[in-house]
């Protein structure tokens, strides 16, 4: 018989509680000393890009990209040499409005049939304690522009669920959609897009 979801959740809680009682950190904490370094794979279930835009001057609306692939190469002794590469399927876009999702995937916007992915690859990293400026090349709809992410370390350590060493970050950036061939509707709908990123990587 398969264990119930409640039983599984209870066993996880007991394990986490036991780790805490033993003095071992059970959850992620923003402690760079816990990073061992190496190559990490992006956790597609907990990495998302939220994009926000102004609609007709009335509202600030948002959408999300998810299910990425990619890697992070990290050396805790030389954090400025870190390299991150992440690719998002355009088909993962979600705004809560199916017709809008379809329009965003059309040639007016992402042209997903021709350009199925959006990608970012870092070119330089400047680190200041638990914060970093990550500069890299963002490619959308076949157009590549330099973008800088303002990133903050959220947590490090062993994931109590997967038991894998995990590193998590949050990041923000601002881009112009017209720079990437997504200028449909400008200026009626805002050209400036605010990006908020949650990124997790597992070793």
Structure explained in plain terms:
The chain is 12% helix and 46% strand. The protein is elongated, with a radius of gyration of 19 Å. A hairpin with a 3-residue loop joins β2 (48-55) and β3. 20% of the residues are buried. The chain is built from two helices and ten strands; from the N terminus they run αβββββαβββββ. The protein folds into two domains: 1-26, no CATH class; 31-202, Lipid/polyisoprenoid-binding, YceI-like (Lipocalin, Beta Barrel), CATH 2.40.128. It has helices at residues 5-21, 98-104; strands at residues 38-42, 48-55, 59-65, 69-74, 83-89, 117-128, 131-140, 143-158, 165-176, 192-202. The protein has an eight-stranded antiparallel barrel. With 203 residues, the chain is mainly beta.
